[in-house]
Amino acid sequence: MTPADLVLFNGDIITMNSKMPSAQAIAVKGDRISYVGSNQEIKQYIDEKTQVIDLGGKTVMPGFIDTHTHVVDYGRMLTWLDLECTSSIKEIQTQLTERVKRVGEGKWVLGRALNPERLLEKRLPTRQELDAVAPDNPVVFYCQLGQVCVASSKALEAAKISQQNNIGIERNSIGELTGVLRDQATNLVWGVIPEPTQQELYEATELALENFVQAGITSIHWIMLSEAELPIIQKLVETGSLPLRVYLIVPTNLLDLALQNLKQLKNDRFKLGGAVIFADGYLASRTAALLEPYSDSPTNQGKLLCQQNEMFALADKIQNSGLQLIIHAVGDKAIREALNIIQHTNRNPAVPRPRIEQAAVLNHQTMRCIEELNISVSVQPCVVAAEFSVWSAKERLGEKRVHWLFPVKELLSCGVLVSAGSDCPMEPLNPLCGIEAAVKREDMQKVSVFEALQMYTKFAARAVSEMADKGSIEQDKLADLVVLSNNPTSVPVKEIASVSACFTVFNGVVHRSKS
Hints:
By secondary structure, this protein is of the alpha/beta class. The protein has 18 helices and 24 strands. The protein has an eight-stranded parallel beta sheet with strand order 8-15-16-17-18-19-20-21.
């Protein structure tokens, strides 16, 4: 019996393997699992060189797989002021004062996760209150929920907002700007925020990736958004600096550049895996393409962002490039168009099955078609929750259509492969938040805890044809694991998001929290 490099024992192990659903101990040799079983049997894998960890009853799962994340944007946000736990406007002013001391006068100061409901005043700060402690700095603080921010006078001046009267620019009773911007008006100030340097972006990305690992995530589907990300990815791969496994998805406008610069990179932690066609927009902005008008905007049906002939050409190019075909389609009209494209495009058998990202507004017919065409669906459970709690999905779609909004339970019942991700940084990174959101749904589409766990593990691995290596805890699979403080299937639903990742095992190596 070959001694193991690492042994975890006395654990509550959720294997996600139907042939052995639970276990007590795991042995790891190199980057692979060499044994899964009992505390008694594991002893034969231990010698004087084996690292042995007594789990003390903690839960072990396959490392989480996040199938939808924007890494560089998340990294940028990590460099901002974190306002999530602030309890008053005075406390916000104190944090702002300290940040200005660090960055200097005239520099932009950005903040995130502002929540007026947590503040003593139960309201957002005003530009005047930001100006009081940072009169010479452009300041923009973004809210945790909704498309809302508050900006200082210098930031409003930079965006020339004083000269405009757009919808979403808030004014007080005497017509003065409060600094609060909502919905599309937030883009006015976002458009003038200076871009960070390439080195700043790289360092922010490293920080973001480390946070993924700390959360128990060992694989991500990195959806690239800009050309500036290419050299960052290239450097991470070439220097062997990736702390987890990356399945890269590129937008079609950057496909040629990605093929030119990344296709040849050889690394067991990186794969240029797919390319995404954006068929439509989003429900929140009423840009998702619907077959019938929005219930709260009778003249608006959204619109397709790609014409049919263009989509066919792009789909063929993606398949011919050896990449997975992914179509972002939210509204029922866009989903119908995506299904038509997939049905009539010659598939490359060497790449994973086509995938629809979001697939929000469905019906029986489209679900049957998704199953018959062997298409996978990727959803973001926290986004689903936000559609109801923040974006008024019922008012947007009406009683009949909202019943078919993200019908995850019915998709699973139909045999459709559904994987899950975070949409970080728009939603929380923590997979347990997404799992809780999927289980807490108040309609017929809520899933069981185990089904939600599958969406973040074995289903996510299967969606990109990686079940041979990951997604479950089995002998000879990669030793990518997460150790949790509690078993998510045993705690009350409202406490699932509070379950913490104690440490992560990636590639057979233990990564403990730095905090």
